[in-house]
């Protein structure tokens, strides 16, 4: 298809003030009375564009739906060029938080910032700097991929050579250039996800919000998606991503946050989250016989968590050092148990998630 030049976009300069610089108003961090759930009230803060490394920031974010607290006092930040994994079951508050960041909803209390701009006071400036890929999206079935991307390029004000070059780059990056003239209705789930990612990238945003981008993808498509996410981060883009596939988040994310029932329970790198938990390892011990007696003995030893017994196989979380593991095996042998096998492994991100949310996940 051909692209025609349009009128020149009118641009305006952004006001630039560094956060934390002299003269910053004291009222920025002052609490604002919580409004009734049916109304939307947020702190009144001046428009700023910071040069801080924090490219995404949530400050005491709340969102009420009637008596339901979908997001309850959530605070975290993501540094520029980092990938942040947002973990939680359905209904935990992930999508609500992301919709607020994408300016599709407003907080009941608190605020969120994208590249230094408030989603409450500067939504237009936020949209220029943010690309949003929702968990489900609508497409125009009777247009092809190139026409679809061109529509959004024009909506963002891209014109002339800039629009043509940006369309070409997005098609190449997402691997959809071979299908530029193909109708969207004929695309596979994986290709539609690539196209949706391209739509979010079309205006070259500084921040990307990806809500369950790997849902429904086959293994090869998920591998390609992880590669693209890491490449975007290497190019300096800040990415907030949610997923139910926790092992993949561990591979692609610089840090993670675990949310349940609207409350943020833990944040940090994957290693930091592991270290925050008392039992970092899982031990599997097989004895020759007397499995129940071995279970009773192990339950009295320090560092041993809840034991799962399967015949003569004992599985349990363990918080001791390697020397403590050796002492544990020596104690079993001293008490006359024949130890056939011992396996020690680091807990997976799924294990940590279940431990952090223990008693909360319904």
UniProtKB/TrEMBL annotation:
Belongs to the ABC transporter superfamily. The keyword ATP-binding applies. The gene is ybhF_6. Residues 11-21 have a biased composition (Low complexity). Residues 1-46 are annotated as: Disordered. One of its GO terms (molecular function) is ATP binding. This is Putative ABC transporter ATP-binding protein YbhF. Pfam families: ABC_tran (PF00005). Keywords: ATP-binding, Nucleotide-binding, Transport. Residues 56-286 form the ABC transporter domain. InterPro entries: AAA+_ATPase, ABC_transporter-like_ATP-bd, ABC_transporter-like_CS, P-loop_NTPase. Transmembrane segments: none annotated.
């Amino acid at each position: 298809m051909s692209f025609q030049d349009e009128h020149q976009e009118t641009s305006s300069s952004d006001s630039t003030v560094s956060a934390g610089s002299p003269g910053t108003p004291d009222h920025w961090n002052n609490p604002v009375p919580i409004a009734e759930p049916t109304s939307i009230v947020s702190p009144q803060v001046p428009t700023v564009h910071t040069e801080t490394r924090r490219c995404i920031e949530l400050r005491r974010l709340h969102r009420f739906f009637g008596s339901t607290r979908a997001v309850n006092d959530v605070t975290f930040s993501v540094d520029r060029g980092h990938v942040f994994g947002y973990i939680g079951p359905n209904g935990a508050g992930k999508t609500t938080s992301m919709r607020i960041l994408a300016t599709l909803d407003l907080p009941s209390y608190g605020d969120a910032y994208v590249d230094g701009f408030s989603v409450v006071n500067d939504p237009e400036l936020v949209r220029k700097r943010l690309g949003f890929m929702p968990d489900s999206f609508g497409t125009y079935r009777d247009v092809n991929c190139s026409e679809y991307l061109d529509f959004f390029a024009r909506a963002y004000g891209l014109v002339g050579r800039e629009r043509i070059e940006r369309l070409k780059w997005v098609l190449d990056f997402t691997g959809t250039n071979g299908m530029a003239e193909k109708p969207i209705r004929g695309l596979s789930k994986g290709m539609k996800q690539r196209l949706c990612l391209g739509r979010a990238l079309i205006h070259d945003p500084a921040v990307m919000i990806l809500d369950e981008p790997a849902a429904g993808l086959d293994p090869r498509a998920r591998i390609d998606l992880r590669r693209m996410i890491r490449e975007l981060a290497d190019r300096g883009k800040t990415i907030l991503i949610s997923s139910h596939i926790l092992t993949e988040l561990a591979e692609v994310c610089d840090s993670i946050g675990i949310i349940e029932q609207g409350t943020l329970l833990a944040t940090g790198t994957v290693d930091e989250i592991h270290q925050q938990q008392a039992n970092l390892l899982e031990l599997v011990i097989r004895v020759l016989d007397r499995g129940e007696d071995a279970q009773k003995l192990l339950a009295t030893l320090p560092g041993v968590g809840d034991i799962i017994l399967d015949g003569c196989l004992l599985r349990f979380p363990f918080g001791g050092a390697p020397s403590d593991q050796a002492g544990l095996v020596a104690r079993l042998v001293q008490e006359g148990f024949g130890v056939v096998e011992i396996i020690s492994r680091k807990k997976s991100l799924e294990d940590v998630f279940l431990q952090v949310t223990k008693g909360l996940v319904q």
